[in-house]
Design goal:
The protein has 97 residues and is mainly alpha-helical. The chain has one domain (16-92). It contains three helices and three strands. The chain has helices at 5-8, 38-50, 78-92; strands at residues 19-20, 62-64, 67-68. It has a three-stranded mixed sheet with strand order 1-2-3, with helices on one face. Helix 2 links the parallel strand 1 (19-20) and strand 2 (62-64). The longest helix is centred in the C-terminal third of the chain and has 15 residues, at 78-92.
Length: 97
Amino acid sequence: MPPSSSSRAAPQPDVLSHAVDPGWVPTKMGGAAATGDLKMGYLTQTWLAVSNDAAATVSGGYWYHRQRQVPAPQARDPDLHDQLMDRLAALTGVTLF
């Protein structure tokens, strides 16, 4: 049996990685009634990609409108992560880790 996904997805110190929540924005997917700020959604992503700001150069952030947020506890649960990866592999036939 291969190692679990959480043990295989080891941090890479030279790679920055973030999660960005753009909010409910008025796009084809969000619809015209969406109340979020479309501009802040993409500005957060571009800021993280090119900024030398100290906050943007620390990996592992979860961001909303250039503000670091605290993710749901489940997002950092390695057992839940492994269960999700196993279920997705069963549904799709694609094993990622």
